[in-house]
């Protein structure tokens, strides 16, 4: 057989046997092994095929670098139910492995430590077991280690402290035990350390307090003891240490104060069946254990003196307990009364009804994050206003989910920012896009019952023209509320106004008519009194508050949001509305919003959509009233609009913006008028 025939035979063999291609490509082989282990039923990773090209973009969640090497595998929330294969270690150039929010089980493969280029390892929110690989020190490039919310056991490897690039370690909600390694104190770039809900014991390494970049240290719900380094006070709410029975610290709102014995190291002395550092702290020095023999104590005292010490201790303990009980009762009563708003205090002062560390926060809801289920559940699963907290918990996200969705609230994900809030684009664990609004707790209402009613209302709003709220999150450490909504890919309506001739952002006439109808339906839903919700006045409807999905369907945002915000914040937001002409004339004299206030704003929006202009001046109004379409209809349409429809919409806009509110139509009447419009047409008539 000639060489040419042999070569042809080999080519045909490879062409009809894709498995040989796999054998010849180490990365492709590793991906196919990984597919088999992650998706054993072969239902979720069908795009990973043995004769495919991982770098072609056809492999779900696989991204390659400029050298055509696999650089990222991103499969969060895909329902994967297998195990992580050791074959992942064959992807030598992998820099990001994102397998969080799945159902993966088994051990973390020890071979994973050979990924020396890996920057981000996200295996959190799975069912992984076993231990953290002790050779993790080989992963010298690792910056983010997310292993929280699994079933991991054993200790934190001391070698973890040699990964000098680490800035985020999340090991919370596992079954880890032992002491927190001293070596973690050498991680100079560490910003966040989450160790809560494990079985750690011993003391907090003093070196952790010396990490200049440290922002969050969450060690709550463990069995730690000893004194918290005072330098950690600089973290303020970034330090979480509650529910560690033997832990104390002065100046930490979630910890008991240290008594003098603890400060001078006496708490480390113990006798059989007695643990001095488990005794509740009091403000007076405790006597040495009276059950010890004299030759076991540092010094010898007479029996009479010993009796005197016992009597004094009992007396002071009783007085302290009575005082503490009275203090707790008075404080409880004060927190239940809206005696005064803490915003009345200057920045240099604090309200007497708040702990020192919280003086900048005007919301009593700052304690919510302390509870495992997220809420301070009272009897019957309701709070004092009668709301079901169990219902609200169904919409609750945690801060890990928010940070994971937005790449730790990075600037790259920031869509907009104002004086009171910020909006981030995020990726939900199911792979869908979300918009996440962050609002400082100081901008929210201070009365808990009132706030929870507003929050319950927001979660209940369901209409095709109202943007859907998926849930919320309260971060005590950040002092912020986060509200998670569906993401609209076309942006808000204001982006389509004031466009130059030839712009790609000009909306055709039929879509404009459809948008106006959709906005009317959304407002009509808010104004309708239903069993599931009361009448809601939006108060701040504008083109900025209308977003468009991929099919240009309008979605009204911020519906019901004023019910969560402090009055001064709501008032400040109205300044922009007034400047743009949305504010109804009667508000200036009455200071009250009604359904007719929303009707007026809707009329302004109709004029904006018809004219393509953000500011509606007197000349446009005159042209509308005279039905001079050529003087007010958007010239970017180049005449491609229906004059009959323009006439109906112009008349409607005039009626909605009448100065006397009683003369304006209701939204029911507006919708009825809009249903009489002819079928949308893209041609003039």
Automatic annotation (TrEMBL):
<dbReference type="InterPro" id="IPR011009">
    <property type="entry name" value="Kinase-like_dom_sf"/>
</dbReference>
<dbReference type="GO" id="GO:0045088">
    <property type="term" value="P:regulation of innate immune response"/>
</dbReference>
<dbReference type="InterPro" id="IPR055414">
    <property type="entry name" value="LRR_R13L4/SHOC2-like"/>
</dbReference>
<dbReference type="InterPro" id="IPR001245">
    <property type="entry name" value="Ser-Thr/Tyr_kinase_cat_dom"/>
</dbReference>
<dbReference type="Pfam" id="PF23598">
    <property type="entry name" value="LRR_14"/>
</dbReference>
<dbReference type="GO" id="GO:0004674">
    <property type="term" value="F:protein serine/threonine kinase activity"/>
</dbReference>
<keyword id="KW-0325">Glycoprotein</keyword>
<dbReference type="Pfam" id="PF08263">
    <property type="entry name" value="LRRNT_2"/>
</dbReference>
<dbReference type="Pfam" id="PF07714">
    <property type="entry name" value="PK_Tyr_Ser-Thr"/>
</dbReference>
<dbReference type="InterPro" id="IPR032675">
    <property type="entry name" value="LRR_dom_sf"/>
</dbReference>
<dbReference type="GO" id="GO:0016020">
    <property type="term" value="C:membrane"/>
</dbReference>
<dbReference type="InterPro" id="IPR050647">
    <property type="entry name" value="Plant_LRR-RLKs"/>
</dbReference>
<keyword id="KW-1133">Transmembrane helix</keyword>
<feature type="domain" description="Protein kinase">
    <location>
        <begin position="409"/>
        <end position="677"/>
    </location>
</feature>
<keyword id="KW-0433">Leucine-rich repeat</keyword>
<dbReference type="GO" id="GO:0004672">
    <property type="term" value="F:protein kinase activity"/>
</dbReference>
<feature type="transmembrane region" description="Helical">
    <location>
        <begin position="305"/>
        <end position="330"/>
    </location>
</feature>
<keyword id="KW-0677">Repeat</keyword>
<dbReference type="InterPro" id="IPR003591">
    <property type="entry name" value="Leu-rich_rpt_typical-subtyp"/>
</dbReference>
<protein>
    <recommendedName>
        <fullName>Protein kinase domain-containing protein</fullName>
    </recommendedName>
</protein>
<dbReference type="GO" id="GO:0005524">
    <property type="term" value="F:ATP binding"/>
</dbReference>
<dbReference type="InterPro" id="IPR000719">
    <property type="entry name" value="Prot_kinase_dom"/>
</dbReference>
<dbReference type="InterPro" id="IPR013210">
    <property type="entry name" value="LRR_N_plant-typ"/>
</dbReference>
<keyword id="KW-0732">Signal</keyword>
<keyword id="KW-0812">Transmembrane</keyword>
<feature type="signal peptide">
    <location>
        <begin position="1"/>
        <end position="26"/>
    </location>
</feature>
<keyword id="KW-0472">Membrane</keyword>
